[in-house]
């Protein structure tokens, strides 16, 4: 059986020279790779107690929803600004080249709920920190962050210091 890392396609010099892009689509396009990714991520948090899973658009949906289904938990969407139809709360955050805004429905998290955040990766940590701030503003407690990949060289873990972070794969470089 292949290791999970073998399903991730690495593309050198994308989007710019010196960067190695870790392509998650190669995991998704392979049935065994996708199953291994979901199973591995689930195994990392088997000791964690949580009430709900929240995931960021769009790859957080891809990994978070099957885990929520398997664990019998609800799934909450955190989306780009303007994509949710009901009353929302938003958080703007810094990107490498500009800013972005994510939103969550105001009624998506109930006060005191324990929340597991799921995404495909953590790089600089901006999206993850914004998700944490949204959940906490609604009265939820973030008990963990689960990602398929951590790009450790970009130090996103530092932005969410004090929160549990589990990654199925850790890449040391940028």
Short description:
The chain has five helices and nine strands. By secondary structure, the protein is α/β, with parallel strands linked by helices. The model has no long low-confidence stretch (mean pLDDT 95).
Structure commentary:
By secondary structure, the chain is α/β, with parallel strands linked by helices. It has helices spanning 25-28, 31-44, 59-71, 126-137, 156-159, and strands at residues 9-12, 20-23, 52-56, 75-80, 88-95, 98-105, 114-122, 141-151, 165-171. A seven-stranded mixed beta sheet has the order 5-6-4-3-7-8-9, with helices on both faces.
Question: Which properties best describe this structure?
Answer:
single chain; 174 residues; alpha/beta; 7-stranded mixed sheet; two-stranded antiparallel ribbon; 5 helices; 9 strands
N-to-C SSE string, H for helix and E for strand: EEHHEHEEEEHEHE
Biggest β-sheet: count, sense, barrel? 7 strands, mixed
Strand content: 35-45%
Kindly state the percentage of residues in helix. Answer: 25-40%
Q: With helices defined by DSSP (H or I, 4 residues minimum), what is the helix count?
A: 5
């Amino acid at each position: 059986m292949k290791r999970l890392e073998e399903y991730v396609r690495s593309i050198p010099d994308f989007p710019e020279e010196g960067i190695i892009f870790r392509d998650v689509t190669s995991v998704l396009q392979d049935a065994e790779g996708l199953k291994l990714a979901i199973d591995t991520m689930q195994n990392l948090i088997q000791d964690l107690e949580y009430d709900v899973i929240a995931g960021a658009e769009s790859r957080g949906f891809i990994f978070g929803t099957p885990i929520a289904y398997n664990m019998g938990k609800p799934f909450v969407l955190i989306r780009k600004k303007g994509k949710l139809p009901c009353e929302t709360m938003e958080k703007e955050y810094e990107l490498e080249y500009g800013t972005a805004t994510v939103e969550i429905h105001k009624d998506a998290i109930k006060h005191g709920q324990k929340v597991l955040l799921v995404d495909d990766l953590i790089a600089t940590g901006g999206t993850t920190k914004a998700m944490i701030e949204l959940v906490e503003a609604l009265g939820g407690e973030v008990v963990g962050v689960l990602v398929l990949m951590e790009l450790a060289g970009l130090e996103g873990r530092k932005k969410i210091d004090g929160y549990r972070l589990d990654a199925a794969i850790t890449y040391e470089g940028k």
